[in-house]
Amino acid sequence: MKKLLISAIIAATAMGATAATASTAWIEKGVKLNARSGPGTYYKVIGTFHPCTKIHVVGWKNGWAKVSYNHHYYWVSGKYLQNHSCNHYVKPKKKHYGHSHGHKHY
Length: 106
Hints:
Elements: H1 2-20, E1 23-27, E2 33-36, E3 45-49, E4 54-61, E5 64-69, E6 72-77, E7 81-82, E8 96-97, E9 104-105
Antiparallel strand pairs: 1-4, 1-7, 2-3, 4-5, 5-6, 8-9
């Protein structure tokens, strides 16, 4: 009985850790990303995500992200995910002008 209780606590803790690491991500701009049934190219393609689609990452395995979208779970390559929306504005760096020969330094 004690072993069963310890196993249940470990399992609950592991599940909580996965839920705690869930995060929002977006498919990269210009990328149509295959949604697969498992974490690898040898798994069946079961759908496609369009560029800039907002998804929720709930886990990782060998560079593959397990994602939640519309109450379903899929696996996608983590290489094509970003942590900001496609219309996220990044402030450009200030231009610095040097004293030597009027060259611009960025």
